[in-house]
Amino acid sequence: MSDPTTHPESSRQDRSRRRFLQGGVALSAALAAGVGLPLAGQAQPAPDDPAKSLGAPLRPYGERAPSAAQGRVTQAKPAERGGSFTPLDETLGIITPSDLHYVVQRGGRPDIDPQKHRLLISGLVDRPVLLTMEELKRLPSTSRILFLECSGNSRLGRPPTPKSVQGTHGLTACSEWTGVPLAILLRDVGVQPGARWLVAEGADATGNERSLPLAKVMDDVLVAYGQNGEALRPDNGYPLRLIVPGWEGNVNVKWLRRLTLVDRPYMTRMESTGHASLMPDGTARQFNFVMEAKSVITFPSGGQQLGGPGFYEIRGLAWSGRGLVRRVEVSTNDGQTWQDASLQEPVLPRAHTRFRLAWHWDGREAVLQSRCTDETGYVQPTLAEVVRVRGQNFVFFNNAIHSWRVAADGSVHNVQV
Which of 224, 389, 417, 249 lies closest to 319, judged by CA? Predict the structure, then answer.
């Protein structure tokens, strides 16, 4: 018979048991001191065998477990102007739950009866049409997984400086959108030769109107009524919204009610002054549509705490309005050296892409960054490179590399300037 004190497997098992028992001693001491004991009125822990107690009844609509609750940070202003930010550090995979999708609104959320809602298509067309929701849903439909991003995402100089990735990058989300390709509708009404642009109008109080070039409209734009397998949520444009893949969030007009074919852009408020970008030479960039390649590390990220030196998986999201994400590199030393991260399938055009990199933290201060390259060869720039082109006062379309500092005590901080 072999000696259990010298057998390698027995020795490993003994060490594991000792560690487990030592942890149990610490737990017993904490309980004896009253640490972690439930207070009166609080929910009690589940029994050792849940099968011995009757569970909760079925409900018409599912809900999250209390311990897995997530929420959006909301910044509201007078006249119902403000936004809610997606908790990117808490979401999993590439699909954002509909109720966590970021929201930007300027005139409050309209309350629309879908039975009365109509979509008017008119202007430079042969056969103007007024469509009900029922008629739209009878037409050929498609579903596509696409990201949306507000052009003010990662906006610089927004006081106070955001600490978390939800605050810095939370104005983006990714959903499966379902609806009718707009090209089908336009072919049916007959686009006249002089039409070059389309003006989309929403039903909100501010009358958000945007001009879109007809080439993009006929390519891949959707008139969507579904999101993630259900009807659009009211905050996301119920019952109808425009989905313009890869372009800034503001052109994805919510509560869509009117499409007008025209011969030129209409220079609406949002495209003449609202979303113009001032350049260092005093000129303004207008009709900036495409959201360029971008990425951000979501773990470790601002406000989080590492438990001590050891193995961690650096995780994050990357996306590009020009198509597929081809490569994501990660630096743990403030951009001095870079390593290729693994891209998690599926990698889809104009959708969020998950990336991962194994990292052994040695306990010393580190600055983490990620850098995305898309299928066109475009490489995500540094902040200094963006400022060199657009100046110090640019506000919109910031896709610069972002930095998180991991301090020696494991705390993670936003150090972007």
Answer: 249
